[in-house]
Amino acid sequence: xxxxxMHLAAHFPGVNNTTVxxxxxxxxxxxxxxxxxxxxxxxxxHLARTAExxxxxxxxxxxxxxxxxxxxxxxxxxxVGRPESLTVLxxxxxxxxxxxxxxxxNATFNEPYELARRLATLDHLSAGRAAWNVVTSFDAFTxxxxxxxGFLDRADRYTRAAEFVATARELWDAAAPDGAGQPVAxxxxxxxxxxxxxxxxxPQGHPVVIQAxxxxxxxxxxxxxxxxxxxxxxxLEAGRAFYADVKDRLxxxxxxxxxxxxxxxxxxxxxxxxxxxxxxAMEIRRRQISxxxxxxxxxxxxxxxxxxHDPDGPLPEADPDVDSTFVQGRVKxxxxxxxxxxxxxxxxxxxxxxxxTVIEATGRQSFVxxxxxxxxxxxxxxxxxxxxxxxxxxxxxxxxxxPFVDRVVPILQERGAFRTEYTGTTLxxxxxxxxxxxxxxxxxx
Length: 445
What we know:
This protein folds into 2 domains: 332 residues, Alpha-Beta Barrel (TIM Barrel); 72 residues, no CATH class. By secondary structure, the chain is of the alpha/beta class. The strands form 5 sheets. An 8-stranded parallel β-barrel has the order 1-3-6-7-10-11-12-16, surrounded by 5 helices. The C terminus is likely disordered. Helix 6 crosses helix 7. The protein is globular and about 70 Å long. Helices cover 36% and strands 15% of the residues. The protein contains 14 helices and 17 strands.
């Protein structure tokens, strides 16, 4: 049986507290001082070049507009320094040739003209490899770094994002080969733009638009505006349900199923045998969830100071404070009280300590096994339409992608599930996305 073609991307996992930095990294030693490997260009170049060696579609950078805090203190295990994505990718454009370059940029705290110009510039510099991961924010904590503060109601974040993307596309469409371009006159609920775009039409016309969001509003936004969806559904059943729901929304907007690629973020752990892979996966979890990190995970759920709690003892007896602002800058996934009850049940069932419960409950390894087994699992997800491909998040930074490229990619290629060479030059070529047709007249709001 011929497998469906698989799309692959690599995520640089440098903005979370579960990243394990390689002590024996093949890259140059980390620089001394604040930031270390997190802001070392060698870290970015190693992972990006590995992804390009593996013929991946694109390299993906997250964004952090404010560091997380515990009771007014910076999260100790958070990374020190979060580089601005487009700046890093502009530098990587000179060190890579075919790999797509995807930046996460917030649609709440930016303006369409300025960001459309920066993305088009990256598309020119990279000869058509730019992508924009659209994210939104409604919290006043992040907004304190910006003049407007937390002005945006939660219900308005997708309406602003949708208009933001539409306005950026009007600007890109108004560009002309000679740079003169058509005038733009956009007047909407959130933006008013009157002028001309200051760049020639970029190689892709529109940089690829990526969207991450699983809510009903996020799914609808993806169906109307995105080229790629970055989702977090990990099981085959959940992936198939999400895939069918989002793809079924496309015809109402004049789009075909192949016009939108669904790529969940996944992890992998390899071993020469299945048992060794499982042992490696558990060792990774132990390294990620140190005693101190376990307490931070508990504080995120309970919303109280647990600095005196014994991570090797039982879970906290107190109930979570659902109105707490003790932990700020993290996205909450679910009701803390329900999560605490699930963790207590898990702890009681298996006789686990606080730290062991966190390790068990927050396991993130998506595919665990031998290279052949991992390849088969991934092919099954794509063939059964739970995904069009995957955004790989290696646990070990910056060398964690190397084993996948060296040991799994060749198997995917042998199975006919993945390319053996780049056949195009732009990111749209890699993803099989149609080129947007330029407008013949100025965009209107």
